[in-house]
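ingest -> validate -> predict -> emit
validate: passed (alphabet ok, no gaps, 171 aa)
predict: started
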Amino acid sequence: WNGIAWTATSNLYHDGTNVGISWTTPGTYKLYVNGRLKTAGITETSDQRLKKDVMTIGNAVSKVMQLRGIKYNLKIDEYPQYDLEEGLQVGMIAQEVEKVLPEVVDTDAEGFKSIEYSHMVALLVEAIKEQQQTIEQLQSVNNSQQTRIDNLTNVLIEAGMLKFEPRFLPP
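emit:
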């Protein structure tokens, strides 16, 4: 440690404000880790007192439908300085997500994009709620139609136009 940065033999770098682990310049990030990070838990600030202009995400299902989940391998040989992980990965492409939900995409000083996946939970919650509302509406229509079918079946049976058979009854 020379008062500004750790010595060259260390993997920890500090520029007076930001910290890099296995990276010489943390850039604009408070903590930049080059490699995998494991923790017992991470929480993100979300207190109502810190927020303003709060609005529910609309058309969430439509937004989710525009997103694409992918499988991929990282270009390890082309970017050895990033200590990228080998093997098949799953995720999304930041440039594609940015077109749908730009609020969760970040671009660093070198132009590389990243996704705040945890912030996408809000979109997914609203999409599930929209789908549940659609399911409930369809169930209601289905129940109404089944009642009409049952009533018409009974009318036809009573009129002798249809022989009663248990297979016509709903399960």
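Residues 59 and 127 are 8 Å apart (CA to CA).
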